[in-house]
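re: that chain from earlier
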Amino acid sequence: MSRLTALATFVALALSASAASAGWTYGFGEVTSNSATNVAIGESQLSMEVIRLRRSDRVRIKFRNTGPEASSITDVYFDDSNSVFSSIRRIHNSDGVSFSQGASPKNLPGANNLLDPFQTTLGLNADSDPPVQINGVNPGEVLGITLNLASGKTFWDVISGINNAVLRVGLHVQGFANGGSESFVNVTPKNPDGPPIVPEPTGLALAGLAIGGLLVKRRRRNSDSDAVEE
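^ sequence. v structure.
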């Protein structure tokens, strides 16, 4: 196997492996503020990871509650004003978690508290099965939701939508130690000098540069060899 072929194979395997595992992680900020203590717990313990899958027509989002404080994600809502998603494809329940598509209430509690009110897109919500707090995402647990992308949309449309706040994800959290509940929405990462950061798929570009560099080196070697033979 040539060095070029070996490098190409390595890059292809690396990209294939990372495509189903690497993701963009976001935290959550308050929508309601019924209790400063509960808000602080939610903001420190809750996160979501947006994962690029091998199938380009779908995206998976993992919701985590790292703990240790008592809390349970019981509802998940998507405000998809740019119509990036077409539907929820599958819900992945980890041990101790049991979610089904559809949520009650249908919209994020306290949605109107936001300057731009949160409006759940039809069909893009899910909640935990009764008993809701027990079957929610409690400390140390994970919930996965795979969503179908709308025609012509890509993983990068999802990331761009989240970073530009035209695609928002809301959580309703219950089961705090004091018996309260709170709502949260994903936090958009900001560029300190201006607009939201829109990430670029640099992995492929770097791989292309690596292969391109080897090709140039190989061509030069062949050229030198030809010159000697002449």
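The two ends are 27 Å apart (CA to CA).
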